[in-house]
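Thread: Newbie trying to understand structure tokens

Hi all, I'm a second-year student working on a class project, and my supervisor (Dr. K.) asked me to get a predicted structure for one chain before our next meeting. I've only ever worked with sequences, so writing a 3D structure as a token string is new to me. If someone could post the tokens and maybe explain what I'm looking at, I'd be very grateful. Here's the chain:
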Amino acid sequence: MSTVKSHRKVVTKLSLWAVGMFGFALFVMPPLYDLFCEITGIGIRPAERYEAAPVAVDYSREVSVTFAATNNEQMPWAFRPMDSKVVVHPGERYEVKFYAKNLTENDMVGQAIPSLVPFSAGDYFHKTECFCFNNQPLAAGEEVEMALVFVVDPELPSSIKSLVMSYTLFDVTPVAADTVAQLQ
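---
Reply by user tm_fold:
Sure, no problem. This is what the structure looks like when written as tokens:
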């Protein structure tokens, strides 16, 4: 009988511990992560349209912007920047193109998620138009050129001489059924 009580006590303690860990992960970790990202400047920034106000172009400075494109492991598309690197003057508007082709025999929808390095430059790289703002529906075998229009803010710290803007393309077809239906 004491063995059963001992087992119940252990199971009860382990169950309470598991519930406590779940609660910690659910309620405590997200605010801590947000605080950490705010303090360090690290984190994913949402892909938002920037309304460009006229600013003076700084022709005395040049910033190298390298573009990269990768596919999530479940994304069977060809995806690459058409210009892998540009040298820009802060304050001037630039446009680059990315190429995408649906290599499957099925209609699909992709979504590109941006990432900028160094992270501290995120407040200074402004996208006025970007294929990452919307889902990208492609019919089977279809290929497209997708535009990214951006401005590097003249307030970019002078210590930052180069940026890397990368996009990861994800298959969002299962959650974009209405978009796929429009292709047919």
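A couple of things are worth pointing out once you decode it. The beta strands are 63-71, 77-81, 85-88, 93-102, 108-117, 125-130, 136-138, 143-152, 162-171. Residues 1-43 form one domain. Feel free to ask follow-ups in this thread.
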